[in-house]
Automatic annotation (TrEMBL):
Superkingdom in the source lineage: Bacteria
SUPFAM superfamilies found in the cross-reference section: TPR-like
Keywords of this entry: Signal
Signal peptide: 1-21
Record-linked InterPro entries: TPR-like_helical_dom_sf (IPR011990), TPR_rpt (IPR019734)
Source species of the chain: Kangiella aquimarina
Protein name: Tetratricopeptide repeat protein
Keyword Signal attributed: yes
């Protein structure tokens, strides 16, 4: 078992597959080979040519065909077919004539000659069987998928130990014909038989399961594709979409982080998605880190909204210095004092009262604060002055706070508290 496990906090996503195993879905689990792996054809040998002159002509036509001199090759073959009494040579000539027409793009003529060659009985059973595959491929080139599939069915009904490529061809034809259910097993079997067309075949399997609305199966295949094709951005995007439809938020996050670590998620949308996923999974520090990295790399546009989002995440993560830096950058896009207020609140909570007071004053001076924030700014300034041992400045700030309905009651209570404390201090001093 080989695995890639990526852990983010308590979130883990494992992609694993057994060596040489293939993805098992409700559609692939019942796939069986379409032809026997072993056996022998009856009449497997083609009849030998008896005419030396015919043999020479076949050789010359073959050489012309190999050199793409199709007109020359056709002329030799037509003369041989018309005049030779060597049935074996004629059968081979008709076959080669069909191949020449195929290369010229004369597909109907090609198919006619290849069918004639197949019925001549001069090619031997293996060649006759393989001709069905050739005819299917020509029909596919013509986009006549129904005819191509007919030839493929005949091919698989007679072939022994077919190559993986023939399964791949069969799968592709079914898919092109929009028979997605039937496309799955040939694609699966092509992989099982060792086809090197890994990406196209897995993509066909994934897309077919999507078309059949089997998201669970598509997820299984998508996970395997991430293992097999870690350098392909599309496989992450496709699996991410499936996980999203299935509501697997934690898996989405782990996959997105894996894509990020492999350098696959490098767009503005990707960075925003990754940040949002961390935020939704209550990991604000990494939500902010990833988004800020995107801005610093020039991938994510730098603007007030982005820096506010970064700052808020850092604030919730209690990364005060980073939050303050981000709020300052957000502040550069507006004349409002709202971000100075946020900075002041951070300083206040961190018991840096002098800096808190300075930032509250800046927030009030700039104005355009949210409803109630100006009152809270004066109230917290008063508390900060009191905690710094500055009762007169504290009361002055609290007197200003009394003008705001949302904090006036608290301001009065705190003024009374300060006055009581100061009165007690004076009494203690007199008693000394």
């Amino acid at each position: 078992m080989t695995k890639i496990t990526h852990i983010v906090g308590f979130i883990a996503l494992t992609f694993g597959f057994a060596v040489n195993a293939l993805p098992q879905t409700k559609y692939t689990s019942s796939c069986e080979l379409l032809a026997p792996k072993s056996g022998e054809y009856e009449d497997d040998k083609a009849p030998a040519m008896t005419s030396e002159s015919a043999y020479k002509k076949i050789t010359a036509a073959n050489e012309a065909y190999a050199d793409a001199k199709y007109v020359e090759s056709i002329a030799i073959l037509q003369e041989l077919i018309a005049n030779s009494n060597d049935k074996a040579a004629v059968g081979k000539a008709i076959f080669l004539l069909g191949l020449n027409y195929r290369e010229q793009g004369k597909y109907d003529q090609a198919k006619a000659e290849l069918r004639r060659a197949m019925s001549s009985g001069m090619l031997g059973k293996p060649n006759e069987v393989n001709l069905r595959l050739t005819l299917a491929q020509i029909s596919a080139t013509q986009e006549n998928y129904s005819d191509a599939l007919r030839w493929m069915k005949e091919y698989f009904s007679e072939v022994i130990n077919p190559p993986a490529s023939s399964y791949a061809t069969y799968a592709s034809l079914y898919y092109q014909n929009q028979d997605f259910r039937s496309a799955i097993c040939p694609a699966y079997l092509a992989l099982q038989e060792g086809s090197k067309l890994t990406k196209p075949l897995y993509s066909l399997l994934f897309a077919s399961h999507i078309e059949l609305k089997d998201l669970a199966g598509a997820e299984v295949i998508g996970r395997e594709m991430v293992e097999l094709l870690p350098g392909e951005k599309s496989v992450y995007d496709n699996l991410f979409a499936v996980l999203s439809q299935r509501g697997k938020v934690q898996d989405m996050l782990a996959l997105a982080e894996l894509a990020y670590m492999n350098g696959m998620w490098d767009s503005e949308t990707n960075y925003k998605q990754l940040s949002a996923l961390y935020s939704n999974n209550q990991i604000p520090l990494l939500a902010a880190d990833r988004l800020e990295e995107g801005v610093n790399k020039g991938i994510v546009e730098s603007n007030e909204e982005i820096w506010r989002s970064i700052a808020n995440s850092y604030k919730y993560a209690k990364a005060s210095a980073k939050a303050i830096n981000a709020y300052n950058k957000a502040s550069s896009y507006t004349s409002s004092g709202k971000y100075d207020y946020e900075i002041a609140s951070i300083y206040f909570n961190d018991e840096e009262y002098a800096k808190a007071i300075e930032s509250f004053r800046s927030a009030i001076r700039k104005g355009n604060l949210r409803d109630g924030d100006a009152g809270y700014a004066y109230l917290q300034m008063g508390v900060a002055h009191q905690r710094m041992g500055q009762p007169d400045q504290a009361i002055a700030a609290l007197e200003r706070a009394k003008n705001y309905k949302n904090v006036s009651k608290n301001a009065n209570a705190y003024i009374s508290y300060i006055q009581q404390i100061e009165s007690m201090k004076k009494e203690l001093a007199l008693n000394d």
